[in-house]
Amino acid sequence: MFSFKSLKMKNILLLFMLCIAPLAIAQEEEEDYASNLNWLTDLDEAKTKSSDTKKPILVYFTGSDWCAPCKMLKKDFFNSESFIDKSENFVLLMVDMPRRSDIISSEQKKKNEAVVSKFNSSGGYPNLVALNDKLHKIGELSGYTFLRETDRHFAFIDSILENY
Description:
With 164 residues, the protein is α/β, with parallel strands linked by helices. It folds into 2 domains: 1-30; 31-163, Glutaredoxin. The protein has helices at residues 4-29, 43-53, 68-78, 81-86, 106-119, 151-163, and strands at residues 39-40, 57-62, 91-96, 127-131, 137-142. The longest helix is centred in the N-terminal third of the chain and has 26 residues, at 4-29. The radius of gyration is 21 Å and the shape is globular. The protein starts with a helix and ends with a helix. The model is unreliable at 21-30 (pLDDT under 50).
């Protein structure tokens, strides 16, 4: 027996599946290479590693859950093959200041606040700061525009590497 009610329910289910499927596929396709990089989250550990390896520290100040330019920079710059290759010449330190309390611990947030107050002189996000192994600032680059051009960021890290 034919029922309009069952046909209506099947159509709703089909429509729901058609709407959800592209989202699931898009999430699978977008790989997050930046998360595969060796990002440290402790300044003391970064300093020790910098001293041991004779590499500068690249500090990335971000608001991972609220800062739209930070999210774009991560995708356009940190996820690029060019950055991944160049990252081997740095000790990477991520200082995240999320608004959600479930992203980092309260202890980590306090540590990050101390690093922000000492080294993020612009106060903006995203911000890149280069430090030597004595934790002296050797360069800083603030911001990322909606034009999504990474040329300034590559020039910044190249200049740090040339002068270190």
